[in-house]
């Protein structure tokens, strides 16, 4: 913030992307530092809160987890509006989830605020090379093409999940 004084903020973040890419797992890895391979598919919408310190500011991150299923679109559309940051998640072992990125970006354009900060997240980077469908460079190129930031994560092992949320919060903090 411009005054240099510390402030308390609440940032609303939204996780979107195809079903089973790991949105719920990313949220729980960040909020509870846990991974459970047998979570049920998210029904509708759920949220978790974690407070972080960033440049002397106390920031409450309210993380909304949406269901990827098409039939829940009417429920989730209204959550785009209040979001200050969006993680668009795909699965690096699932080509189809990568092919759907353009569709998700259109949804952001249609429903989210114009100044929303969007981050492309390639999850499951712990996967065996033989299971890889999308290389890191293709993910990076896709993000560059749409002028958004990019990171690969593993909710399972706990790679870059902290960094993803801190980077997103940092980007939002420069705008408030
Ligand atoms: P969502 O539908 O996007 O919320 O996805 P979930 O969080 O429910 O995860 C879908 C499946 O992928 C589950 O079986 C998870 O255990 C698995 N999964 C999630 N994140 C990772 C990850 O980082 N690595 C691996 N290998 N599997 C993951
Ligand atoms: Mg889920």
From TrEMBL:
Coiled coil: none
InterPro entries, per database record: P-loop_NTPase (IPR027417), Small_GTP-bd (IPR005225), Small_GTPase (IPR001806), Small_GTPase_Rab (IPR050305)
TM ranges: none
Domain of life: Eukaryota
GO cellular component terms attached to this protein's record: plasma membrane
Keywords: Cell membrane, GTP-binding, Lipoprotein, Membrane, Nucleotide-binding, Prenylation, Protein transport, Transport
Keyword Zinc listed: no
Membrane topology summary: Lipid-anchor
Molecular-function GO terms, alphabetical: GTP binding; GTPase activity
Localization terms from the record: Cell membrane
Entry keyword annotation includes Nucleotide-binding: yes
Recorded family membership: Belongs to the small GTPase superfamily. Rab family.
Name under which the protein is recorded: Ras-related protein Rab-13
Organism encoding this protein: Plectus sambesii
